[in-house]
Amino acid sequence: MKLISWNIDSLNAVLTGVSARAELSREVINTIAEIEPEVIAFQETKLPSDGPTKKHLEILNDMFPQYEIVWNCSVEPARKGYAGTMFLYKNSLKPVVSFPKIGAPDTMDFEGRIITLEFNDFYLTQVYTPNAGEGLGRLKERQIWDIKYADYLEKLDKEKYVIATGDFNVAHREIDLAHPDRNRKTAGFTDEEREGFSNLLKRGFTDTFRYLHGDVTGVYSWWNQRARTSKINNSGWRIDYFLVSNRIAGRVLKSEMVDSGPRQDHTPILLEIDLQV
After folding, report:
1. Taking a C-beta distance cutoff of 8 angstroms, is the pair 110, 163 a contact?
2. 128 counts as catalytic
3. How confident is the model at residue 277 (pLDDT cuts 50, 70, 90)?
4. Which pTM value belongs to this model?
5. b/e per residue 88-107 (b: at least 16 CB within 10 A)
6. For a pLDDT cut of 70, what percent of the chain falls above it?
7. 109, 146, 167, 240: which one is catalytic?
8. Who wins on pLDDT, 226 or 132?
């Protein structure tokens, strides 16, 4: 089974935008389509509360025929057009779809951050983890989220094995970003967020990229688009992950980044796993 996850940074901009960046984004979409994954997870869709428009769905259906589409959007009391997630899965698959609330603080449970697909033998769940924000204004809430989310995954893992993917908004180890020394108190690399991710892994989960690639350095999934040369200089962060239950780590065949060319921001990530073993 091939799975793709990508923080798309506005589905509308990617599908209908006319900027040079939108063109680069559509090239990434085409690359994903060529891979023909069974499931695609999008984060940060930034759709309105009632979901994609008819035009969005027409474009997606044209790009990805024979896929079902489900989404979770930010709704009141959360901000409109904020966060959001979406799954596309081949219509030969028949998962049970849920949109969990985990008891998160503030408006986080209303921001469309989690979708879970339940299959006969496993759960596939995606997350768009809240950012701690500028000035770490949301760090305390983020710490609570990390605990609640770890509790949620652990609960799933007791029922069936789990594949969890998405933008976790944390570089776990120093080797997961280009410049750890200058980012000690930056959102995504605080001690608190890194500890939260460590706690998640200790609940029985494996970071598949590190499982296959060990301590390789210089491989990232996000480059700050505000810094014009961040990707050219490979000044990036690895903050997008595929995690699996420890007991199926040995079934992972590939866990890698998908080449997104010159486009900065997030690149898609790919997991290939043999679930028939």
Report:
1. no
2. yes
3. low
4. 0.97
5. bbeeeeebeeeebebebebb
6. 100
7. 167
8. 132
